[in-house]
Amino acid sequence: MSEPKQPDIAKPAAAARPPARGAKRDSLGWREQWRAYGRSHKASLFDSLGRLRAQPISTLLTCLVMGIALSLPMGMGLLLDSLEKLGGSWQRAAQISVFLELRLPEQQSAELHTRISGLAHVADAQLISREQALAEFQAQSGLGEALKELPENPLPALIVVTPQEVERAALEALLSELQALPGVEQAQLDLGWVERLAAMLQLGQRFVFGIALLLIAGLLLVVGNTIRLSIEGRRQEIEVIKLVGGTDGYVRRPFLYIGVLYGVGAGVISWALLALGLSWLNDAVVRLAGLYQSDFQLIGVPLEEGFLLLLGAILLGYCGAWLAVGRHLSELEAQVQ
Prior knowledge:
Distance between the termini: 27 Å
Number of helices: 11
Strand content: 5-15%
Order of helices and strands: HHHEHEHHEHEHHHH
Structural class: alpha+beta
Number of domains: 2
Oligomer: single chain
Largest sheet: 4 strands, antiparallel
Helix content: over 70%
Number of strands: 4
Radius of gyration: 33 Å
Shape: elongated
């Protein structure tokens, strides 16, 4: 298939005649130029579609390779979000246990609970009375009968504080502030667990980011190599176009459309693979979570992230084609001269 003929927009027909109305002539000239520019882009698009349609197997394989490579980092990111949801929120992992004085009256305990709930860095605070604490301890420890023999309840009231921030410095400051409140016997926080959780999540995020960078580089190479082969197959045609005065933009345009079309196909395939894969995996996850009396399920592909995936695939295809065409145009320019 030959390259579509680009309309001559450098010399509008109106330029050969003296203008009767200068402003109107200029307006019509620009309008015709934009129409010619649009027709040129339309011809390049349909020419690219025709070339891809003429090689369906090669086109499908390229889109599959790109789609699979795109689906891997995004799929791992969605699984990471689901695991974070399964493990509980960061705020829950960083809960501070505030033990009140054993002889503190209930009214003062309630007032202290209200005061702690109003602190700036506290997201939530739950008051557990001495009776509730004893009942929970009896149920979980298996020492219910032995505890009944005690003359009085040995457990103090407790306020479970959920912080708004989970950074170490903010947690230590909040812990010190809670410890200094009147009526507080002791405030405890397992900072080691918070740091371990933060380190694991950060490791997962960095791993996903590194994999994404490697796969993006691989996709650029795949697109660039595919476009390079297409350029090599049309080398003589491009040389003729350059000899007769064809611009770099005219030569580059159909290859850029090919890269964009590859990106569209890869984005659709990647979106479909993620949706099907997560749905298939979610059935087993739901059954496993049901055995532990949990309603946990995997997060699907949100609509916004799906469109971002499609847009990213298009940009990758465009950038890969641009880099490949730019390099080979420079080589052809040197050979033509």
